[in-house]
Design a protein that fits this description.
Length: 165
């Protein structure tokens, strides 16, 4: 992306076709190093899944049908020291470090959602996660368009203006 220390989680990428929308939001600690990430998958204007990744706490997958279905933490320094030279520089989700859904709900999800640039989306997602059995009507195309504008304006402060002579 070419930005660093964004602090806020902004819309970085999206895909849209007739009935599907996917959006990816990220924040960066430094160039090419994602601090927090959120992936939203929508089909027929209904939320299917949310993927959360927090550099500090781990990652989690939420689905409409089951809530939090996966939760893992990242490898720690002790686990890395017993691995190869490359893995010391590229930590990964530690497969033996599966955690209960409560960890995701207490740490990972709030860490990512509380950093979202869009306060409205933050509120909607918190409500959906807290009451997964209820269908909360949301205009996802409007959310996408709103985040395109918000993110474009937000990123202007990270990209130096072009010199025009």
């Amino acid at each position: 992306m070419g930005v660093s220390f964004t602090e806020k989680v902004f819309l970085e990428d999206y895909f849209i076709d007739d009935e599907n929308i996917s959006m990816e939001f990220s924040s960066y600690l430094r160039e090419d190093f994602v601090e927090k990430n959120l992936k939203i998958s929508i089909s027929q204007n209904k939320l299917n899944s949310l993927y959360f990744s927090s550099y500090q706490y781990g990652n989690a997958l939420w689905t409409k049908e089951k809530g939090i279905t996966e939760c893992n933490r990242w490898e720690n320094d002790e686990q890395l020291s017993s691995k190869s030279y490359l893995s010391k520089h590229f930590p990964s989700s530690f497969e033996n470090a599966k955690l209960p859904a409560e960890h995701a709900l207490k740490y990972i999800v709030p860490d990512v959602l509380d950093s979202l640039l869009d306060d409205n989306l933050q509120s909607i997602l918190k409500e959906i996660i807290s009451i997964p059995s209820e269908e909360i009507l949301t205009d996802w195309k409007h959310i996408l368009n709103s985040n395109l504008r918000l993110s474009e304006n937000f990123l202007k402060k990270f990209i130096p203006p072009k010199n025009v002579h």
